Amino acid sequence: MAATTLTAPVADPAPERGRLVKRHRIATRIWHWVSALAVFVLLMSGLMIFNAHPALYWGKYGANADTPWLMINSDANGGFVRLAGYRIPTDGVLGRWADGDGNMHTNAFPGWATIPSYYSLSGGRRWHFAFAWVLSLSLIAFLLTSLFNRHIKRDLAPTLEELKPAHIGQDIADHARLRFPKGEAALRYNILQKLSYVGVIFVLLPVMILTGLAMSPAMNAAWPWLTEIFAGRASARSIHFIAAALLALFILVHLIMVVLAGPFNEIRSMITGRFRIVPQPGDKA
Amino acid sequence: MISRRKMLASLGAGAGGLVLSGCDRLDGSETFRGVLRSSEGLTMRAQRLISDRTALAREFSPSDMSPVFRSNGTAMPGTSAYQAHLASGFRDWRLRVDGLVRRPLSLSLQQIRAMPVRTQITRHDCVEGWSAIGKWHGVPLKLLLDAAGLRQEARYLVFHCADLYGTNPYYESIDLIDGFHPQTILAWGMNDAMLPVPNGAPLRLRVERQLGYKHAKYVERVEAVATLAGIQGGKGGLWEDNSDYEWYAGI
C-alpha cells in the first residue's frame, strides 16, 4: 500500500490514477452517437406505429379476423398483453394507462414510450421513416469505413482463441463478478462485448432495416424475394418487433455495463476518444 | 458514489422528459415536419429507382387468401344518391373520366364489366400495420385512360368517391406511373363475386404498390389534372389533407 502511494505521480490531483490514451476512432464515435439518436427515435416512433394495430401475426397476412401470437389490448378488467393465448394483466402500463393529466388511454404503449407522446400514426411514421434513412445510411458508411480502417478485423472480429468455450466461460464469470479490466486489457473488447457488438451491427440492425423494407408494398414489387425470406409480410412485421425488443435489451445491458465500468471514463472515451487506463500488473510499460 | 449514481439517474430521467416534450414540440413545428417529410420524396425516388415502372406486386395463389378480408373506413356511404344507386343495383350509376382528357367518358357498370378483365390475388397493406390477401376483378385503368386520351399536361389522376367524411367526399390521387401500371385496376369484383358495399361497391381502385388508403373505394369520377393544388386541401387525398399522411404511400 505504502509503496503505491509513494510512486503515485504527485502532480496528478485526480482521484483516478493512470494515463489517458486514445480509445475510439472518430468514425466509431460519430456513428455511435448518430445511431444512438436514430435508434432512440426509431424505437419510440415504432411503438407509436405499433399502437395503430397492436397485434402481431405469423405468415403472409394478418388482420382482425386472424389469430395474433401477441396482442396488447384492454377489456373491462383493464389493460393486458395476450401472448400465445395467455392473458397477462398489464393495467396501468400497457393496454390501458393514465397520462400526466390523469386521463385514461387505451392505446397499447403509453405516451412516455412513444413519439409523438399523443396518438398520431402519421406523426410516428414521419419520424420513423426519416430516421430510418439516418440509421441505414450511417450504418452503411460505418461498415465501409470500418472495413477500410480495419476496425472490424482488428477490434470486432472474435479470434478463434476467444471463441473457445473455456474463454467465453471465463469472461461470463468475470462479468458476473463485475470484474472489469482497468489496465491495457480494457483497451480491447472482451469476447462478450465483441459478440454483442457483432450481433447488433451485423445481425440486429440489418434485420431491422430489411424487415422494415419487407413490409413496404412498393418493395414487395421491387424485391419480392425480400418479403419471402422473412416468410411473408405479417412474419416480417413480427420479426421487426422482436428484433426491436432485442435491440432495446442490448441498450439496457449496454448502459448498465457503462455505469458499472465507470460511466465518466466510458462516456468520455466515446465523445473525445480519450480513455484513462490504470496500469495493472502484467501490463507493458 | 451512490450520490453520483442518483444524480446520473435523476439527470437521465429529467433528460428523458425533456427529450420527449421536445419531440412533441418539434412535431408541432411545421418547419421541422417539413424536414422529416423530405424523406418521403427520398423514399419515393429510391423505390422508383430500384424498381421497374411495371414491376408487379407479388400475386398469390387462392390457398394464400385471407379467410376474412377486413374492410376499413366507410362501410356504407350515407348519401341519398348512393342509397338510390344501391337500391337500383347501380343501374343508372355512371363512372366519369374527365379533366385533362380529349374524350371525356361516362360509363355504366355494365360497360365497364364488358371491358377486358384483370384478375389478381394481391396483399392489401393497411397503413395501420394489418394486411389481408384477396382476389380482385376489374378493368385495367390504362384501358380507360387510353380510351379517354390524356392530354399532354396531365400529371395526376384524382379519384373522387361517393362516401363523405364530415362534409368532404373521400378522394385520392396517384401519378401516371402508378396510373398506367398493369396491376392498377378499377375493381368491380372481389373474391369471385360482385364487390361488396363495405369494400367499395360498385367500383374501387387497386394500386397494388401503395398502402390501403390510396385504394379509393366508391369511385365515381376519375379526373386527370396537372396539379393537385386546387383540389380540396391540396395534398392529394383526404387522409393527406386531414391527418397529414404522406401522399406517396409505398412504405
UniProtKB/TrEMBL annotation, chain B:
It holds the Pfam family Oxidored_molyb. Residues 91-225 form the Oxidoreductase molybdopterin-binding domain. InterPro entries: OxRdtase_Mopterin-bd_dom, OxRdtase_Mopterin-bd_sf. PROSITE patterns: PROKAR_LIPOPROTEIN. This is COG2041: Sulfite oxidase and related enzymes. It comes from uncultured Sphingomonas sp.
